[in-house]
């Protein structure tokens, strides 16, 4: 497909995700944080377009593309890390998109792209972390604040896929690379199944809740701990029991609670963005 078309699918996916409300604990068109606002996410999604278009026309250099996406995003807004996790998922999907005409091909090509990453991709990705100022667990013995870690990556011959394998047991986004974007394509199916009956907004919100109920969100585990992430998933699952009125009322209350607690299921939102990209690639319109 045309690189411009693929890039617009990715851009629209980011905009649709941040616009959907209420997504408990996350920024949306009705909720801001003190230092990060809805408009920052819009600016990031629009500003990063040239990098997405470049990715759609590229066959390699995934680490550099993620690094450039983070850099470009920060030029257009002052809200900090808006889409780092989303870029990690979107860039390989976008690179795959221009090679494909159907979803089966998209998944296969994305898997191939991430497995063929290089040591230089790992270095570029590592540099992107410090620029995005993302709070993460250390990867093996690699300290993100230590520039000497780049030399360790080179000495150990770690590719970017190797680094994702190290993190995959506790990081939802890394796990997607390792497991062939399994949750991403499940997410696409979940939204697709709901959109006709519920419309795009509620389809996204309900899918967000389902994914959160089934997975310990990495953002929550990093900011708090595993126990807190498990508690949030359990609460999300309980809300989804009952009729639609009860569910939507429960989601609104849950949203208020998580915002007050400072709990942000950001990795779940990144999966939603990737899933929306898949649907837009397939031709979804609303």
Automatic annotation (TrEMBL):
| Molecular function, one GO term | triphosphoribosyl-dephospho-CoA synthase activity
Reading the lineage from the top rank, the first entry is: Archaea
Annotated InterPro entries: CitG (IPR002736)
Q: Which Gene3D superfamilies match?
A: Triphosphoribosyl-dephospho-CoA protein
Recorded hits in PANTHER family, A to Z, give: CITG FAMILY PROTEIN
Provide the protein name. Answer: CitG family protein
């Amino acid at each position: 497909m045309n690189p411009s078309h693929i890039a617009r699918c990715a851009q629209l996916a980011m905009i649709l995700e941040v616009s959907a409300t209420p997504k408990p604990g996350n920024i949306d068109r009705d909720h801001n944080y003190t230092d990060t606002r809805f408009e920052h996410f819009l600016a990031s999604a629009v500003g990063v377009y040239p990098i997405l278009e470049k990715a759609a026309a590229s066959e390699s250099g995934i680490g550099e593309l993620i690094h450039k996406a983070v850099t470009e995003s920060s030029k257009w807004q002052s809200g900090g890390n808006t889409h780092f996790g989303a870029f990690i998922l979107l860039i390989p999907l976008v690179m795959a998109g221009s090679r494909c005409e159907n979803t089966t091909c998209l998944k296969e090509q994305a898997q191939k792209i991430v497995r063929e990453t290089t040591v230089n991709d790992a270095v570029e990705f590592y540099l992107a972390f410090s620029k995005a100022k993302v709070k993460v667990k250390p990867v093996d013995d690699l300290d993100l604040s230590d520039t000497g870690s780049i030399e360790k990556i080179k000495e150990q011959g770690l590719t970017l896929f190797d680094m994702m394998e190290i993190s995959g047991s506790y990081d939802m986004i890394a796990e997607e690379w390792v497991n062939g974007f399994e949750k991403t394509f499940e997410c696409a199916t979940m939204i697709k199944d709901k959109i006709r009956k519920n419309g795009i907004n509620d389809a996204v919100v309900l899918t967000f809740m389902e994914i959160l109920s089934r997975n310990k969100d990495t953002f929550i585990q990093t900011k708090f701990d595993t126990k807190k992430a498990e508690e949030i998933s359990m609460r999300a699952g309980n809300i989804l029991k009952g009729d639609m009125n009860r569910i939507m009322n429960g989601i609104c209350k849950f949203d208020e609670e998580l915002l007050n607690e400072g709990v942000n299921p950001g990795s779940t939102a990144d999966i939603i963005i990737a899933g929306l990209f898949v649907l837009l690639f397939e031709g979804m319109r609303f």
